[in-house]
Model the fold of this input.
Amino acid sequence: MTDSAGPEPHRRGFVDVAEGQVHYRAAGEPGSNTPLAMLHSSPASAFVLGPMIDLFGATRAVYAPDNMGCGDSSRPSVDNPDVAYFADANVRAIDALGLDRFDLHASYSGANHAIEIALNHPDRVRKLVLDGCVVLPPQAKAGMLANYAPDVEIDLIGSQFNFAWHFCRDLSVFFPWYARDAEHRTKRSLPDPHKLHDKTVEVLKSVETYSLTLRATFRYDATPRLAQITVP
Done:
């Protein structure tokens, strides 16, 4: 991932969908190999996939859309979208990009969307890679739903900026981020300040809707759906 002072090697653009527009990042040349679609984890946007977009773009066309309500994409058209909604929205973005058959790589919350895409469109997904998948026991799900993605109110003292910065910072240090104690300390160190700034900016772009993909993830039961996948 480049720092704030350097240009991004990959390209950026928008495609039209029913809700408005989906922002995407892309690299590589069409036709060289099976195209690769990449779905990002939440919060933030496809920005977090930047290094892999550039790496895979050396050998194939790569496309990574921002989820609806994340980054620079339009907000969802329903109040409480579920994983099926986000999966469908990603398919519609992929359609608008002109992809027919593709490989699919997805991380964490994005992996849940990819599971549904693979189940509903097995003829289009050549291969599936799930880089992390959110599978939680019921008690943990309840805690995540209650605390992980709080509503953020935009106010005149700018408290949304303070929330977004510490939210993105603590995601790197604790899991879950709101359990700030030794028991929940991860092995990761604080992120590079430039990268933390850039990620915070991505969250701030959609600070009123960033929570929707996360809450959909915590309501989703991936285990039975994983067992039904037929694509490699």
Remarks:
- Residues 159-173 form the longest helix (15 residues).
